[in-house]
Amino acid sequence: MDNNLEQLKNQAIEEIKKAVDINQLRDLEIKYLGRKGGELTKMMGQIENFSGEERKRFGAEANEVKKIIIDLFEQRKNEFEGLGAPVGALIDVTAPGILPPEGHLHMISQAIEEIEEIFKKIGFNRVRYPEVEWDWYAFEGLNMPKDHPARDEWETFFIDAPEGEKGKMVLTPHTSNGQLREMEKGKLPIRMINISKTYRRQSDISHVPMFHQFEGLYIDKNVTVSHLKGVFDYFVKQFFGSKREIRLRPYHFQFTEPSFEIDISCGICGGSGKLSDGNKCRLCKEGWLELGGAGMVHPNVLKAGGVDHKKYNGFAFGWGVERTYMMKAGLKIDDIRMIYKNDLRFLEQF
Ligand code: FA5
Question: Whose CA is nearest to atom 22 of ligand 1?
Answer without folding.
Answer: 320
